[in-house]
């Protein structure tokens, strides 16, 4: 707890001037007011003010992070997790959101539900989520340029050797490795783009029943717990169909899930 508080104070006090400058219009005033309330440990009012700021700028990652910290202090850990995931969807490299999410998840009691470990979800957690899209774009471009330069140079040397009837130069192994790297990075880039199209949400209640159909008093097939990330499928009135990766698909109330992407 003290670790997160220290991180929060650093973020809210030392980084504040830069962040306020990045806000626009009245959202900047609300952001500043909410920060002052948070530092004064008036978490309830800070939560209210940060929520007002989000009404004006719904995808501001820094405001989402501050609101998540306030919700955490008010004991709403699942909601804080959802807000931090939403912040990271807007700014994947925001260090305070990354640290806050890691810390709060470590404070949550681990609860499992029956599911299979899917290859894609495992790949996503290890290689897609931690790395920004721009990084794979740059790596793909650099590996393509380097491989192209080496292979074109090899082609020129080979043609010259043939013309002069000399022994052919050895094929550059590094060119092959860079070509393979280009294929891998491009594949990861494509997966990253694909993953951005998947609608995901976070369960923000302590426990919610996954039902076979929308509506009250339907058959419950699974219990989902606060902080779990789900894939959202479709909505029907006050209900949303979700899938817990590697497990079942069912319906829960929209109020039980925060859309994070």
Strand content: 5-15%
Total number of helical segments?
A: 10
The largest sheet, given as strand count, sense and whether it forms a barrel, is: 5 strands, antiparallel
Order of helices and strands: HHHHHHHHHHEEEEEEE
Cα shape: elongated
Instruction: Tell me the count of domains.
Output: 3
List the helices and strands and how they pair.
Elements: H1 2-14, H2 16-22, H3 26-39, H4 43-56, H5 61-73, H6 77-90, H7 95-107, H8 119-128, H9 133-163, H10 173-196, E1 200-203, E2 207-211, E3 220-225, E4 229-236, E5 239-243, E6 249-253, E7 257-259
Antiparallel strand pairs: 1-4, 1-7, 2-3, 4-5, 5-6
Structure commentary:
The chain has 261 residues and is α+β, with helices and mostly antiparallel strands. It has three domains: 2-107, Serine Threonine Protein Phosphatase 5, Tetratricopeptide repeat (Alpha Horseshoe), CATH 1.25.40; 133-196, no CATH class; 200-259, SH3 Domains (SH3 type barrels, Roll), CATH 2.30.30.40. Helix content is 59%, strand content 14%. The chain is built from ten helices and seven strands. The chain has helices at residues 2-14, 16-22, 26-39, 43-56, 61-73, 77-90, 95-107, 119-128, 133-163, 173-196; strands spanning 200-203, 207-211, 220-225, 229-236, 239-243, 249-253, 257-259. A five-stranded antiparallel sheet has the order 6-5-4-1-7. The protein has a two-stranded antiparallel sheet with strand order 2-3. Strand 2 and strand 3 form a beta hairpin. Helix 5 runs antiparallel to helix 6 (77-90), helix 5 (61-73) runs parallel beside helix 7 and helix 9 runs antiparallel to helix 10 (173-196). The longest helix has 31 residues, at 133-163. The protein is elongated, with a radius of gyration of 24 Å. The model is unreliable at 13-18 (pLDDT under 50).
